[in-house]
Amino acid sequence: MHNQDNWVGLKCVVMVVRVPHLWNQTTREVLFYLTSLNCEPRNLGQVIRLH
User: Fold this and answer.
1) How do the domains of the chain map onto residue ranges?
2) Which of 1-5, 15-19, 32-36 has the lowest mean pLDDT?
């Protein structure tokens, strides 16, 4: 990673793909999250949904 000093404490990079359906249209969203939390997928999923 570029400038590693800026990422002290980073433990996980999360990619979430959402496919929302609105009326007759389907789109695809790709979101990235950077976190200092432990990389437990189930826990991170709950945190992301509540955020």
Assistant:
1) 4-50
2) 1-5
16, 31 Cβ separation under 8 angstroms? yes
- The pLDDT value recorded for residue 15 is 92
Mean pLDDT over 3-27 rounds to 88
In Å, what is the CA distance from 24 to each residue of 4, 19, 20?
A: 44, 13, 11
Contact (CB, 8 A) for 39 and 11: yes
Instruction: For the chain, give the secondary structure using H, E and C.
Output: CCCHHHHCCCCEEEEEEECCEECCEECCEEEEEEECCCCCHHHHHHHHHHC
Q: For all residues of the chain together, what is the average pLDDT?
A: 87
